[in-house]
Amino acid sequence: MAAKPKLHYPNGRGRMGSVRWVLAAAGVEFDEEFLETKEQLQKLQDGNHLLFQQVPMVEIDGMKLVQTRSILHYVADKHHLFGRDLKERTLTDMYVEGTLDLLELIIMHPFLKPEDQQKEVVNMAQKAIIRYFPVFEKVLRDHGQRFLLGNQLSLADIILLQTILALEEKIPNILSAFPHLQEFTVKISNIPTIKKFLEPGSKKKPPLDDIYVRTVYNIFMP
Amino acid sequence: MRGWHGAAEPRGRETLVRNPETTMAGKPKLHYFNGRGRMESIRWLLASAGVEFEEKFIGTPEDLDKLKNDGSLMFQQVPMVEIDGMKLVQTRAILNYIATKYNLYGKDIKERALIDMYTEGMADLNEMIMVLPLCPPDQKDAKITLIRERTTDRYLPVFEKVLKSHGQDYLVGNKLSRADIHLVELLYYVEELDSSLLANFPLLKALKTRVSNLPTVKKFLQPGSPRKPPLDEKSLEQAKKIFRIN
């Protein structure tokens, strides 16, 4: 398929963040149509472009894919980011689902009431340090290889790196007790496609700010 | 330890501990509290695939602590399913494994994408219904109104339209898939909430009947099966205690 995938979403990370990460890591160039107004969303809905009237939506290979996980799975499958067999695929799924639970806290954070936001940063840090990071630290320590699955990059590495970097923005020393994750972060960040995505001017979006929050409210609130 | 295709398994698979109680031939064992929650869709899928399974119910916070302390739960959470020598966690990972193993996930990447989209939409609606018992009493009416609206305006029309567009018996690829099973499960919950919500969806009603009459599903729908009833006050309190909610 010659056409580039086209992403429909507001100009910010949100639920499209992981999709941008995976496409970029797989070396797939993509276009973006940014949602800025309620009228634009209405137009997409009225034109039956959004299966459940929601974004993210990605036009790819003749399909209009919606639902973040469906999009991630499709791209990961297509670009061999799911391991070699069903068992590795299942491991990847477990790692990704756990990490997405943590990432969800980060995605929702800017939309919390200001008085709840600081408390939530503490909650995120605790969850990361107690529940999620130890799992991945152990996996990496036990097999001593570069990637979570061993010697092959998978969706799990990409989503974990995305989540670590997003957390580091709020809690700079979050990896201090996890030497293998620190090494992992450096190694995965240096993969050429990912390195490019981490450079200024790429399609990676900056941290969510008040402007983004206001835009989202304007578009999605009735 | 040898993995698939005879390749040496990388070290570090301790999370997929080989459990002497569950050999390749053994039944899957489900770890959860005695209620629907996030395990019910897994029960539906296994049962529909004709797979017999065992359940070990978590009755107290101490039961859950024990599972956590013996390293059985990757992220300290249930559902957990012991199957084929693995201890699987994360509802979607478990469902994906079962669906793949029992050929309920379509025949290629595009069918999988369709199944995923439909399934994720259903999961969103199912989630709203599932967490309703936890909703504060003063917000409940508003939540129920929203669920009704989403059911009749956003979700059911999509699946009715899919069936109408190809006129086939099943949502994807003219073959039973997990999408049909998840949808029929959801339709039962919608019906429990308010049977009139299904009124304008004849093809969905027909799908529900058709799938319910499949031998494995029919068996699961009968009394005495592992299918769990709606949460009552007592079970809700127990679940809150076990999972330390409120």
From TrEMBL, chain A:
Residues 85-208 form the GST C-terminal domain. The keyword Transferase applies. CDD domains: GST_C_Alpha. Residues 3-83 form the GST N-terminal domain. Pfam families: GST_C_3, GST_N. GO terms for biological process: glutathione metabolic process; xenobiotic metabolic process. Gene3D superfamilies: 1.20.1050.10, Glutaredoxin. It comes from the Eukaryota. Keywords: Transferase. It is an enzyme of class 2 (transferase). Its EC number is 2.5.1.18. One of its GO terms (molecular function) is glutathione transferase activity. Belongs to the GST superfamily. Alpha family. This is glutathione transferase.
